[in-house]
Amino acid sequence: MEFHIARSIRKTLDIEGLLFSYTGNVIFADVSASRKLAIKLNQSLVSDFGATPEPDRIVNAGALFAMGLIDELNHALIAHYRKEVDPELWTDALRLFEQRAGKDAVDRLLHAFVEQFPTTDVLSGKLTAAQWLQGSAEGLPNREAALEELTLLWLSNSNPAFRSFKPLFDDSSLKLTEQYRQVTSFR
Question: Which residue from 39, 43, 104, 122 has the highest number of Cβ atoms inside 10 Å of its Cβ?
Answer without folding.
Answer: 122
